Amino acid sequence: MNFKKITSYLDSFYAEKNIPGVGIKIYHKNKPVYEHYTGYADAENKIAFGADTLFNLYSATKVVTCTAAMQSVEAGKIKLDAPLCEYIPGYDSRIKIEHLFTMTGGITGRNESEKAKQMIKDGKTQTLEIVKAVAGEPLMFEPGTRFKYGYCHDVLGGVIEAVSGQKLGEYMKENIFDRIGMIDTGFKVVPEKQGRIAKHYAGFDSKTGTSKSIGEIFSVHEFEDYESGGGGLISSVSDYILFAATLCNYGTAVNGEQILSRESIEAMRKNRLHGQALADFTEFGGWSKAGYGYGLGVRTLIDRERNNALSEAGEFGWDGACGCYVVIDPAAEVALFYAQQEAGSKWWEWHGTVRNFAYASIWA
């Protein structure tokens, strides 16, 4: 293996892409083979971006939520073909649980629901209450017919709460994080870890070391008791790669804990979209997701040539609004997690390059 080229590439991000700091860790054959950090978590104070830097995962949260939901499927607590209203009354009976996983439920978001917005104002309304408040909103389309990226995985988080009797974060901690050794991941950061949080940049300029804005610009943490299954987790590179490696190893963690079955991993990475729904996904993802379909909450590679991908068919994962990116490839036995915290950048333009550099480095 030779990682010189990917190291040089990532080291160029500060000056050439105006990214204040990045981190990456790669597993191959269930063992760590590469880890690199460059730049700053706090550029003004010259605090380096490192293995224990904490940052918002944003939509990389979704892979965790869908894993938690698949645990409930395995346990027989929910069924993919069951109506959502069996678990959260008030939702249209045409919406199936699988529609939540695949973003084909036609559900509007909490920001479009006047009832939900009123409940949010006091800052204390919990996840399941907000999810229930959205239930009465008109559907955007017939469930199963279109793909619309949005609120479905937040609703799925509500389903997990409904069937488990726990808050979403409590469930994840008990059934995923604690079991596989993730010590820094959750919906909140305890006071003693606050100093490890990366600054949230948007429009960073490496020449001046300044940014158009600093501070969270997305609304996943705007009220205290809501835990967004679609985007609310905070983590570190060293934590999230353990999760990615576990899914890459068909649900079994490095420490031997099995959190999902091989059958569930295969179900997650099977393309579920066809016809107009797949066309919607392709339009949404643009060229960065060309050649990918969408499974149970994850992109999944169905045409390597269309994406110029060095990963194998069935490689799956997702990304996040400030640039986090996870690659899970059971066939090649490669798991990769890349992180940055810059909202103004076009991170989707280099995710595929990071992926291909990683694979080329492994096979060098």
Please tag this protein with its features.
364 residues; alpha+beta; Beta-lactamase; eight-stranded antiparallel β-sheet; globular
Quaternary structure type: single chain
Question: Which range does the strand content fall in?
Answer: 15-25%
Compute the number of helices: 13
CATH C-level label = Alpha Beta
Strand order of the largest sheet: 3-2-1-12-11-10-9-8
- Percent range for helical residues? 25-40%
Question: Based on helices, strands and strand pairing, what is the structural class?
Answer: alpha+beta
Tell how many strands the DSSP assignment holds: 12
Cα(first) to Cα(last) distance is: 5 Å
In this structure, how is the largest beta sheet organized?
8 strands, antiparallel
- In round numbers, the mean pLDDT is 95
Q: How many domains, in number, for the residues?
A: 1
Second-tier CATH architecture: 3-Layer(aba) Sandwich
Order of helices and strands: HHEEEEHHHHHHEEEHHHEEHEEEH
Shape: globular
Rg on CA atoms, Å: 19 Å
Q: What is the CATH topology descriptor? A: Beta-lactamase
CATH H level, superfamily name: DD-peptidase/beta-lactamase superfamily
Query: Spans with pLDDT under 50 lasting ≥5 residues?
Result: none
Characterization of the model:
It is a single chain. With 364 residues, the chain is α+β, with helices and mostly antiparallel strands. It has a single domain (4-67, 170-363), classed as Beta-lactamase (3-Layer(aba) Sandwich), CATH 3.40.710. It contains 13 helices and twelve strands. The strands form three sheets. Strands 3-2-1-12-11-10-9-8 form an eight-stranded antiparallel sheet, sandwiched between helices. Strands 4-7 form a two-stranded antiparallel sheet. The protein is globular. 51% of the residues are buried. The mean pLDDT is 95.
